[in-house]
Amino acid sequence: MAGDRAPADELVARTVDKESFEPWDDDVESGDPLGFVDTVAYPDRLEQARGHAGTTEAVVTGEARLRGRTIVVIAGEFAFLAGTMGVATAERVIRALERAANLRAPVLAMPISGGTRMQEGSVAFVQMGAVAAAVRRFRQTGLTYLTYLRDPTTGGVLASWGALGQVRFAEPGALIALTGPRVIEQVTGDPFPDEVLRAEHLRDRGIVDDVVAPEDLADRVDRVLAATQDPSEPVDYGAEPLDLPEDAVVDGWDAVQRSRRLDRPGYRELASVCATDVTPLRGDGAGNDDPGCVTALMRLCGVGVVAVAHDRAPGERGAQLGAAGYRKARRAFALAAELGLPVVTVIDTAGAAMTPEDESGGLAGEIAGCLADLAAVEVPTLSLLLGEGSGGGAIAFLPTDRVVAAEHAWLGPIAPEGASSILYRTTERAPELARTQATSSTDLRHHGIVDVVIPDRPSRDEEGEMFGLRVAATAARELRTLLDQPPGPRLRARDRRWRTLAR
Questions:
Q1: pLDDT value at position 465?
Q2: What Pfam families does UniProt report for this protein, alphabetically (predicted)?
Q3: What pTM was estimated for this model as a whole?
Q4: CA–centroid distance for 381 within its chain
Q5: Domains and CATH numbers, the chain
Q6: 70-95 pLDDT, tens per residue?
Q7: Which of 6, 45, 137, 382 is least surrounded by Cβ atoms within 10 Å, i.e. has the fewest?
Q8: Which one, of 100, 230, 119, lies nearest residue 161 by Cα?
Protein backbone atom coordinates (compact mmCIF):
# COMPACT_ATOMS: atom_id res chain seq x y z
CA MET A 1 0.00 0.00 0.00
CA ALA A 2 1.33 3.45 -0.95
CA GLY A 3 2.14 6.13 1.58
CA ASP A 4 -0.34 8.63 2.96
CA ARG A 5 1.48 11.71 1.56
CA ALA A 6 1.59 13.36 4.96
CA PRO A 7 2.54 17.05 4.77
CA ALA A 8 6.24 17.78 5.15
CA ASP A 9 5.83 19.54 8.49
CA GLU A 10 3.84 16.62 9.88
CA LEU A 11 6.41 14.01 8.82
CA VAL A 12 9.25 16.12 10.18
CA ALA A 13 7.46 16.59 13.50
CA ARG A 14 6.87 12.83 13.80
CA THR A 15 10.51 12.06 13.09
CA VAL A 16 12.66 14.59 14.96
CA ASP A 17 12.77 15.47 18.65
CA LYS A 18 9.74 17.42 19.84
CA GLU A 19 9.74 21.10 18.86
CA SER A 20 13.37 20.94 17.73
CA PHE A 21 12.90 21.80 14.04
CA GLU A 22 14.06 25.28 12.99
CA PRO A 23 13.16 26.05 9.34
CA TRP A 24 15.56 27.69 6.89
CA ASP A 25 15.18 29.73 3.71
CA ASP A 26 11.40 30.14 3.70
CA ASP A 27 11.98 33.33 1.70
CA VAL A 28 13.61 31.48 -1.21
CA GLU A 29 10.63 31.26 -3.58
CA SER A 30 10.06 30.52 -7.24
CA GLY A 31 10.02 33.26 -9.84
CA ASP A 32 8.64 32.97 -13.36
CA PRO A 33 11.70 32.46 -15.60
CA LEU A 34 9.73 31.52 -18.73
CA GLY A 35 6.53 33.55 -18.43
CA PHE A 36 4.68 30.24 -18.63
CA VAL A 37 0.92 30.23 -19.20
CA ASP A 38 -1.39 27.29 -19.77
CA THR A 39 -4.94 27.88 -18.62
CA VAL A 40 -3.56 29.85 -15.65
CA ALA A 41 -0.47 32.03 -15.47
CA TYR A 42 2.41 30.45 -13.55
CA PRO A 43 2.57 33.16 -10.82
CA ASP A 44 -1.09 32.50 -10.10
CA ARG A 45 -0.43 28.76 -9.88
CA LEU A 46 2.38 29.45 -7.42
CA GLU A 47 0.05 31.50 -5.26
CA GLN A 48 -2.53 28.72 -5.33
CA ALA A 49 0.16 26.18 -4.41
CA ARG A 50 1.23 28.24 -1.38
CA GLY A 51 -2.32 28.36 -0.15
CA HIS A 52 -2.92 24.67 -0.78
CA ALA A 53 0.31 23.39 0.75
CA GLY A 54 0.85 25.89 3.53
CA THR A 55 4.51 26.18 2.46
CA THR A 56 6.33 28.62 0.21
CA GLU A 57 8.09 25.97 -1.89
CA ALA A 58 8.11 22.27 -2.69
CA VAL A 59 10.78 21.51 -0.08
CA VAL A 60 11.11 22.47 3.55
CA THR A 61 14.62 22.61 5.00
CA GLY A 62 16.04 23.24 8.42
CA GLU A 63 17.97 22.12 11.48
CA ALA A 64 16.60 19.74 14.09
CA ARG A 65 17.62 17.22 16.70
CA LEU A 66 17.02 13.50 16.48
CA ARG A 67 17.60 11.51 19.67
CA GLY A 68 19.71 14.42 20.82
CA ARG A 69 21.90 14.66 17.70
CA THR A 70 21.91 17.73 15.48
CA ILE A 71 20.73 16.89 11.97
CA VAL A 72 19.68 18.80 8.88
CA VAL A 73 16.33 17.90 7.29
CA ILE A 74 15.29 18.33 3.65
CA ALA A 75 11.63 17.33 3.26
CA GLY A 76 9.56 17.39 0.08
CA GLU A 77 6.02 18.78 0.06
CA PHE A 78 3.79 17.05 -2.50
CA ALA A 79 0.91 19.46 -2.07
CA PHE A 80 3.07 22.19 -3.60
CA LEU A 81 2.78 21.51 -7.36
CA ALA A 82 3.27 17.76 -6.81
CA GLY A 83 6.60 18.36 -5.11
CA THR A 84 8.22 19.31 -8.41
CA MET A 85 11.71 20.80 -8.50
CA GLY A 86 12.12 24.29 -9.84
CA VAL A 87 15.01 26.72 -9.55
CA ALA A 88 14.08 27.85 -6.03
CA THR A 89 13.51 24.28 -4.88
CA ALA A 90 17.00 23.36 -6.02
CA GLU A 91 18.42 26.43 -4.32
CA ARG A 92 16.89 25.42 -1.00
CA VAL A 93 18.31 21.91 -1.27
CA ILE A 94 21.79 23.18 -2.17
CA ARG A 95 21.82 25.75 0.64
CA ALA A 96 20.74 23.13 3.15
CA LEU A 97 23.56 20.81 2.10
CA GLU A 98 26.11 23.61 2.33
CA ARG A 99 24.93 24.66 5.79
CA ALA A 100 24.93 21.05 6.95
CA ALA A 101 28.57 20.76 5.88
CA ASN A 102 29.44 23.88 7.86
CA LEU A 103 27.58 22.55 10.91
CA ARG A 104 29.24 19.11 10.53
CA ALA A 105 25.73 17.67 10.74
CA PRO A 106 24.31 14.61 8.93
CA VAL A 107 21.43 15.10 6.50
CA LEU A 108 18.08 13.30 6.41
CA ALA A 109 16.53 13.92 2.98
CA MET A 110 12.88 12.94 2.48
CA PRO A 111 11.93 13.59 -1.15
CA ILE A 112 8.43 13.24 -2.53
CA SER A 113 8.00 14.55 -6.04
CA GLY A 114 6.58 14.21 -9.51
CA GLY A 115 9.98 15.31 -10.91
CA THR A 116 11.07 18.46 -12.72
CA ARG A 117 8.67 21.42 -12.73
CA MET A 118 7.32 21.69 -16.26
CA GLN A 119 6.37 25.36 -15.86
CA GLU A 120 10.08 26.19 -15.55
CA GLY A 121 11.14 23.85 -18.35
CA SER A 122 14.83 23.50 -19.15
CA VAL A 123 16.01 26.02 -16.56
CA ALA A 124 14.49 23.77 -13.89
CA PHE A 125 15.70 20.62 -15.64
CA VAL A 126 19.37 21.60 -15.52
CA GLN A 127 19.19 22.16 -11.75
CA MET A 128 19.64 18.38 -11.45
CA GLY A 129 23.34 18.84 -12.17
CA ALA A 130 23.81 21.52 -9.53
CA VAL A 131 21.90 19.56 -6.90
CA ALA A 132 23.75 16.30 -7.60
CA ALA A 133 27.07 18.16 -7.39
CA ALA A 134 26.02 19.63 -4.04
CA VAL A 135 25.21 16.16 -2.70
CA ARG A 136 28.59 14.91 -3.87
CA ARG A 137 30.39 17.82 -2.18
CA PHE A 138 28.50 17.11 1.04
CA ARG A 139 29.30 13.39 0.95
CA GLN A 140 32.98 14.22 0.49
CA THR A 141 32.95 15.77 3.99
CA GLY A 142 32.60 12.28 5.52
CA LEU A 143 29.17 13.06 6.94
CA THR A 144 26.09 10.87 6.54
CA TYR A 145 23.54 11.55 3.80
CA LEU A 146 20.48 9.36 4.31
CA THR A 147 17.43 9.40 2.05
CA TYR A 148 13.83 8.35 2.74
CA LEU A 149 12.05 8.00 -0.59
CA ARG A 150 8.34 8.73 -0.30
CA ASP A 151 5.35 8.04 -2.53
CA PRO A 152 6.04 9.08 -5.25
CA THR A 153 9.70 9.95 -5.82
CA THR A 154 10.26 10.27 -9.54
CA GLY A 155 12.02 12.11 -12.32
CA GLY A 156 14.63 14.77 -11.71
CA VAL A 157 14.29 14.64 -7.94
CA LEU A 158 14.98 10.90 -7.79
CA ALA A 159 17.77 11.22 -10.37
CA SER A 160 19.57 13.93 -8.40
CA TRP A 161 19.24 14.20 -4.63
CA GLY A 162 16.88 11.24 -4.11
CA ALA A 163 19.02 8.38 -5.42
CA LEU A 164 22.34 9.51 -3.94
CA GLY A 165 21.81 8.48 -0.33
CA GLN A 166 24.61 6.51 1.27
CA VAL A 167 21.76 4.64 2.92
CA ARG A 168 18.43 4.58 1.09
CA PHE A 169 15.17 3.84 2.88
CA ALA A 170 11.74 3.93 1.25
CA GLU A 171 8.16 4.37 2.41
CA PRO A 172 6.00 1.22 2.15
CA GLY A 173 4.41 0.96 -1.28
CA ALA A 174 6.18 4.06 -2.58
CA LEU A 175 6.36 4.57 -6.35
CA ILE A 176 10.04 5.14 -7.11
CA ALA A 177 10.95 5.59 -10.76
CA LEU A 178 12.61 7.85 -13.28
CA THR A 179 9.34 7.86 -15.24
CA GLY A 180 5.97 6.85 -13.81
CA PRO A 181 3.95 4.02 -15.39
CA ARG A 182 1.15 6.30 -16.64
CA VAL A 183 3.60 8.54 -18.54
CA ILE A 184 5.47 5.51 -19.93
CA GLU A 185 2.26 4.02 -21.25
CA GLN A 186 1.06 7.29 -22.80
CA VAL A 187 4.41 7.95 -24.48
CA THR A 188 5.22 4.41 -25.67
CA GLY A 189 1.72 3.02 -26.06
CA ASP A 190 2.67 -0.02 -24.01
CA PRO A 191 1.46 -0.74 -20.47
CA PHE A 192 4.16 -0.84 -17.81
CA PRO A 193 3.96 -3.14 -14.75
CA ASP A 194 3.45 -0.84 -11.79
CA GLU A 195 4.75 -3.34 -9.23
CA VAL A 196 8.35 -3.21 -10.50
CA LEU A 197 8.48 0.47 -9.53
CA ARG A 198 7.34 -0.07 -5.96
CA ALA A 199 9.56 0.12 -2.88
CA GLU A 200 9.29 -3.55 -1.96
CA HIS A 201 10.43 -4.76 -5.39
CA LEU A 202 13.28 -2.27 -5.40
CA ARG A 203 14.37 -3.45 -1.95
CA ASP A 204 14.48 -7.02 -3.25
CA ARG A 205 16.69 -5.83 -6.13
CA GLY A 206 18.96 -3.85 -3.81
CA ILE A 207 17.99 -0.43 -5.20
CA VAL A 208 16.84 0.64 -1.74
CA ASP A 209 18.30 -0.73 1.48
CA ASP A 210 15.00 -1.20 3.30
CA VAL A 211 11.32 -0.34 3.40
CA VAL A 212 10.54 1.60 6.58
CA ALA A 213 7.18 2.76 7.91
CA PRO A 214 7.07 6.47 8.85
CA GLU A 215 6.52 5.64 12.51
CA ASP A 216 9.74 3.60 12.52
CA LEU A 217 11.87 6.13 10.68
CA ALA A 218 13.33 7.87 13.74
CA ASP A 219 14.55 4.55 15.18
CA ARG A 220 16.13 3.51 11.89
CA VAL A 221 17.85 6.86 11.36
CA ASP A 222 19.11 6.75 14.94
CA ARG A 223 20.60 3.33 14.24
CA VAL A 224 22.44 4.59 11.16
CA LEU A 225 23.80 7.64 12.97
CA ALA A 226 24.93 5.54 15.94
CA ALA A 227 27.13 3.54 13.57
CA THR A 228 28.34 6.40 11.37
CA GLN A 229 28.54 9.45 13.60
CA ASP A 230 28.95 8.42 17.26
CA PRO A 231 32.45 8.02 18.73
CA SER A 232 33.80 4.47 18.83
CA GLU A 233 34.29 2.85 22.23
CA PRO A 234 35.68 -0.69 21.87
CA VAL A 235 34.10 -3.16 24.28
CA ASP A 236 36.25 -5.33 26.52
CA TYR A 237 34.61 -8.78 26.44
CA GLY A 238 37.21 -10.46 28.64
CA ALA A 239 36.64 -13.89 27.09
CA GLU A 240 39.47 -16.43 27.41
CA PRO A 241 41.41 -17.99 25.85
CA LEU A 242 41.88 -15.56 22.96
CA ASP A 243 44.97 -16.91 21.21
CA LEU A 244 45.97 -20.45 20.31
CA PRO A 245 49.51 -21.13 21.65
CA GLU A 246 52.35 -20.45 19.24
CA ASP A 247 53.51 -24.08 19.31
CA ALA A 248 50.06 -25.48 18.45
CA VAL A 249 49.69 -27.37 15.17
CA VAL A 250 46.36 -27.77 13.35
CA ASP A 251 46.02 -30.59 10.83
CA GLY A 252 45.01 -29.11 7.47
CA TRP A 253 42.63 -31.89 6.41
CA ASP A 254 40.99 -31.98 9.83
CA ALA A 255 40.41 -28.21 9.51
CA VAL A 256 38.82 -28.65 6.08
CA GLN A 257 36.44 -31.29 7.37
CA ARG A 258 35.48 -29.33 10.47
CA SER A 259 35.00 -26.11 8.50
CA ARG A 260 32.43 -27.86 6.31
CA ARG A 261 30.19 -29.01 9.13
CA LEU A 262 26.74 -27.58 8.49
CA ASP A 263 26.33 -26.70 12.16
CA ARG A 264 29.60 -24.77 12.37
CA PRO A 265 29.31 -21.25 13.84
CA GLY A 266 29.87 -18.33 11.49
CA TYR A 267 29.12 -14.66 10.94
CA ARG A 268 25.64 -14.91 12.44
CA GLU A 269 26.97 -16.20 15.76
CA LEU A 270 29.50 -13.38 15.87
CA ALA A 271 26.91 -10.73 15.02
CA SER A 272 24.47 -12.05 17.63
CA VAL A 273 27.08 -11.51 20.33
CA CYS A 274 28.67 -8.18 19.48
CA ALA A 275 26.82 -6.35 16.68
CA THR A 276 24.45 -3.49 17.53
CA ASP A 277 22.79 -0.70 15.56
CA VAL A 278 22.83 -2.86 12.43
CA THR A 279 21.63 -1.43 9.12
CA PRO A 280 21.84 -3.89 6.21
CA LEU A 281 23.08 -2.45 2.91
CA ARG A 282 21.44 -4.16 -0.04
CA GLY A 283 22.54 -4.49 -3.61
CA ASP A 284 25.48 -3.68 -5.85
CA GLY A 285 24.11 -0.31 -6.98
CA ALA A 286 23.06 -1.70 -10.34
CA GLY A 287 19.84 -3.54 -9.52
CA ASN A 288 21.42 -6.82 -8.38
CA ASP A 289 21.80 -8.40 -4.96
CA ASP A 290 23.51 -11.49 -3.60
CA PRO A 291 22.13 -12.59 -0.23
CA GLY A 292 25.24 -14.69 0.40
CA CYS A 293 27.19 -11.47 0.83
CA VAL A 294 26.10 -9.52 3.90
CA THR A 295 27.10 -5.86 3.96
CA ALA A 296 26.00 -3.60 6.78
CA LEU A 297 26.64 -0.53 8.83
CA MET A 298 26.91 -1.51 12.48
CA ARG A 299 28.65 -1.05 15.74
CA LEU A 300 30.83 -4.15 16.07
CA CYS A 301 32.36 -4.57 19.52
CA GLY A 302 31.40 -0.94 20.18
CA VAL A 303 33.11 0.39 17.04
CA GLY A 304 31.22 1.84 14.08
CA VAL A 305 32.23 -0.26 11.08
CA VAL A 306 31.20 -1.38 7.64
CA ALA A 307 30.95 -5.17 7.76
CA VAL A 308 31.32 -7.36 4.66
CA ALA A 309 30.71 -11.05 5.26
CA HIS A 310 30.15 -14.41 3.65
CA ASP A 311 26.94 -15.56 5.29
CA ARG A 312 26.81 -19.17 6.46
CA ALA A 313 23.06 -19.68 6.61
CA PRO A 314 21.81 -22.34 9.07
CA GLY A 315 22.31 -25.83 7.64
CA GLU A 316 24.51 -24.62 4.79
CA ARG A 317 28.20 -24.34 4.01
CA GLY A 318 29.95 -21.05 3.42
CA ALA A 319 28.45 -18.81 0.76
CA GLN A 320 29.51 -18.95 -2.89
CA LEU A 321 29.24 -15.41 -4.19
CA GLY A 322 28.61 -14.39 -7.76
CA ALA A 323 29.70 -11.22 -9.53
CA ALA A 324 26.91 -9.21 -7.88
CA GLY A 325 28.15 -10.26 -4.44
CA TYR A 326 31.61 -8.86 -5.08
CA ARG A 327 30.19 -5.68 -6.60
CA LYS A 328 28.12 -5.37 -3.44
CA ALA A 329 31.27 -5.72 -1.35
CA ARG A 330 33.01 -3.04 -3.41
CA ARG A 331 30.10 -0.68 -2.78
CA ALA A 332 30.59 -1.28 0.94
CA PHE A 333 34.36 -0.66 0.77
CA ALA A 334 33.73 2.65 -1.02
CA LEU A 335 31.15 3.68 1.57
CA ALA A 336 33.56 2.87 4.41
CA ALA A 337 36.19 5.07 2.80
CA GLU A 338 33.69 7.89 2.35
CA LEU A 339 32.47 7.76 5.95
CA GLY A 340 35.89 7.08 7.46
CA LEU A 341 34.71 3.83 9.09
CA PRO A 342 36.83 0.69 9.58
CA VAL A 343 36.11 -2.32 7.37
CA VAL A 344 35.64 -5.75 8.97
CA THR A 345 35.40 -8.70 6.60
CA VAL A 346 34.28 -12.23 7.49
CA ILE A 347 35.57 -15.06 5.29
CA ASP A 348 33.55 -18.28 5.15
CA THR A 349 33.18 -19.50 1.58
CA ALA A 350 33.27 -22.73 -0.40
CA GLY A 351 34.58 -20.66 -3.31
CA ALA A 352 33.24 -18.24 -5.87
CA ALA A 353 30.10 -19.12 -7.81
CA MET A 354 30.60 -21.41 -10.78
CA THR A 355 27.77 -20.51 -13.15
CA PRO A 356 27.80 -19.39 -16.79
CA GLU A 357 25.97 -16.23 -15.77
CA ASP A 358 28.61 -15.22 -13.27
CA GLU A 359 31.53 -15.99 -15.55
CA SER A 360 29.96 -13.96 -18.33
CA GLY A 361 29.08 -11.27 -15.79
CA GLY A 362 32.72 -10.49 -15.02
CA LEU A 363 33.25 -12.57 -11.87
CA ALA A 364 37.05 -12.59 -12.04
CA GLY A 365 37.15 -8.87 -12.66
CA GLU A 366 34.95 -8.19 -9.64
CA ILE A 367 37.19 -10.34 -7.42
CA ALA A 368 40.19 -8.41 -8.73
CA GLY A 369 38.36 -5.17 -7.99
CA CYS A 370 37.65 -6.31 -4.43
CA LEU A 371 41.31 -7.14 -3.91
CA ALA A 372 42.46 -3.80 -5.26
CA ASP A 373 39.85 -1.77 -3.37
CA LEU A 374 40.37 -3.50 -0.02
CA ALA A 375 44.15 -3.37 -0.27
CA ALA A 376 44.04 0.38 -0.99
CA VAL A 377 41.23 1.65 1.25
CA GLU A 378 42.72 4.10 3.76
CA VAL A 379 40.53 3.23 6.75
CA PRO A 380 41.54 0.52 9.27
CA THR A 381 40.76 -2.99 8.01
CA LEU A 382 40.36 -6.30 9.82
CA SER A 383 39.67 -9.73 8.32
CA LEU A 384 38.12 -12.61 10.29
CA LEU A 385 38.72 -16.01 8.69
CA LEU A 386 36.01 -18.07 10.38
CA GLY A 387 35.46 -21.12 8.17
CA GLU A 388 36.22 -22.27 4.65
CA GLY A 389 38.60 -20.08 2.70
CA SER A 390 38.49 -21.49 -0.79
CA GLY A 391 40.01 -19.72 -3.78
CA GLY A 392 39.27 -16.29 -5.17
CA GLY A 393 36.04 -16.21 -3.23
CA ALA A 394 38.06 -16.03 -0.01
CA ILE A 395 41.06 -13.93 -0.94
CA ALA A 396 38.82 -11.09 -2.15
CA PHE A 397 38.17 -10.26 1.52
CA LEU A 398 41.70 -10.96 2.85
CA PRO A 399 44.31 -8.19 2.26
CA THR A 400 43.67 -6.16 5.41
CA ASP A 401 45.75 -4.56 8.16
CA ARG A 402 45.20 -7.53 10.47
CA VAL A 403 43.93 -11.09 9.91
CA VAL A 404 42.36 -13.20 12.66
CA ALA A 405 41.58 -16.90 12.03
CA ALA A 406 39.49 -19.45 13.87
CA GLU A 407 41.47 -22.56 14.79
CA HIS A 408 39.78 -24.79 12.22
CA ALA A 409 39.44 -22.23 9.46
CA TRP A 410 41.67 -22.57 6.41
CA LEU A 411 42.74 -20.73 3.27
CA GLY A 412 43.86 -22.14 -0.07
CA PRO A 413 43.96 -21.33 -3.79
CA ILE A 414 41.19 -23.87 -4.35
CA ALA A 415 39.49 -26.59 -2.30
CA PRO A 416 41.91 -29.51 -1.67
CA GLU A 417 39.84 -31.74 -3.95
CA GLY A 418 40.31 -29.22 -6.75
CA ALA A 419 44.04 -28.99 -6.13
CA SER A 420 44.28 -32.77 -6.23
CA SER A 421 42.35 -32.87 -9.51
CA ILE A 422 44.65 -30.25 -11.04
CA LEU A 423 47.87 -31.97 -9.95
CA TYR A 424 46.95 -35.65 -10.05
CA ARG A 425 43.70 -35.89 -12.09
CA THR A 426 41.96 -37.39 -9.06
CA THR A 427 40.44 -35.98 -5.88
CA GLU A 428 41.80 -38.81 -3.73
CA ARG A 429 44.92 -36.90 -2.67
CA ALA A 430 42.95 -33.98 -1.22
CA PRO A 431 43.96 -34.79 2.40
CA GLU A 432 47.63 -34.76 1.45
CA LEU A 433 47.37 -31.40 -0.28
CA ALA A 434 45.40 -29.86 2.57
CA ARG A 435 48.44 -30.65 4.73
CA THR A 436 51.19 -29.66 2.29
CA GLN A 437 49.81 -26.40 0.83
CA ALA A 438 50.04 -24.46 4.13
CA THR A 439 46.27 -24.05 4.37
CA SER A 440 45.70 -24.51 8.13
CA SER A 441 45.41 -21.62 10.55
CA THR A 442 48.71 -22.43 12.24
CA ASP A 443 50.50 -22.76 8.89
CA LEU A 444 49.02 -19.44 7.82
CA ARG A 445 50.23 -17.87 11.05
CA HIS A 446 53.70 -19.34 10.55
CA HIS A 447 53.92 -17.73 7.10
CA GLY A 448 52.69 -14.33 8.30
CA ILE A 449 49.33 -14.50 6.51
CA VAL A 450 47.37 -14.73 9.77
CA ASP A 451 48.20 -12.71 12.89
CA VAL A 452 46.04 -14.39 15.53
CA VAL A 453 44.47 -17.86 15.82
CA ILE A 454 41.42 -18.29 18.07
CA PRO A 455 40.50 -21.68 19.58
CA ASP A 456 37.18 -23.08 18.36
CA ARG A 457 34.94 -26.11 18.60
CA PRO A 458 33.32 -27.78 15.62
CA SER A 459 29.62 -27.09 16.20
CA ARG A 460 27.08 -24.70 17.65
CA ASP A 461 26.03 -27.26 20.23
CA GLU A 462 29.56 -27.65 21.57
CA GLU A 463 30.39 -23.96 21.45
CA GLY A 464 27.22 -22.29 22.62
CA GLU A 465 28.01 -18.57 22.78
CA MET A 466 31.71 -18.92 23.58
CA PHE A 467 33.01 -18.96 20.01
CA GLY A 468 31.32 -15.67 19.24
CA LEU A 469 32.60 -14.20 22.50
CA ARG A 470 36.19 -15.22 21.77
CA VAL A 471 36.03 -13.78 18.26
CA ALA A 472 34.37 -10.62 19.60
CA ALA A 473 37.02 -10.18 22.28
CA THR A 474 39.80 -10.57 19.74
CA ALA A 475 38.10 -8.30 17.20
CA ALA A 476 37.65 -5.62 19.87
CA ARG A 477 41.31 -5.86 20.80
CA GLU A 478 42.44 -5.65 17.17
CA LEU A 479 40.13 -2.75 16.34
CA ARG A 480 41.33 -0.84 19.38
CA THR A 481 44.91 -1.30 18.23
CA LEU A 482 44.14 -0.24 14.66
CA LEU A 483 42.21 2.85 15.74
CA ASP A 484 45.15 3.96 17.87
CA GLN A 485 47.58 3.81 14.94
CA PRO A 486 48.24 6.90 12.78
CA PRO A 487 47.02 6.31 9.21
CA GLY A 488 50.38 6.81 7.51
CA PRO A 489 52.39 4.18 9.40
CA ARG A 490 49.42 1.78 9.38
CA LEU A 491 49.01 1.99 5.60
CA ARG A 492 52.74 1.62 5.02
CA ALA A 493 52.77 -1.45 7.25
CA ARG A 494 49.86 -2.95 5.29
CA ASP A 495 51.60 -2.37 1.97
CA ARG A 496 54.86 -3.79 3.29
CA ARG A 497 53.17 -6.84 4.75
CA TRP A 498 51.48 -7.99 1.56
CA ARG A 499 54.37 -6.85 -0.67
CA THR A 500 57.04 -8.81 1.20
CA LEU A 501 55.07 -11.86 2.36
CA ALA A 502 57.06 -15.10 2.00
CA ARG A 503 59.93 -13.32 0.21
A1: 64
A2: ACCA (PF03255), Carboxyl_trans (PF01039)
A3: 0.94
A4: 16
A5: 8-228 (3.90.226.10), 252-500 (3.90.226.10)
A6: 999 999 999 999 999 999 999 999 99
A7: 137
A8: 100
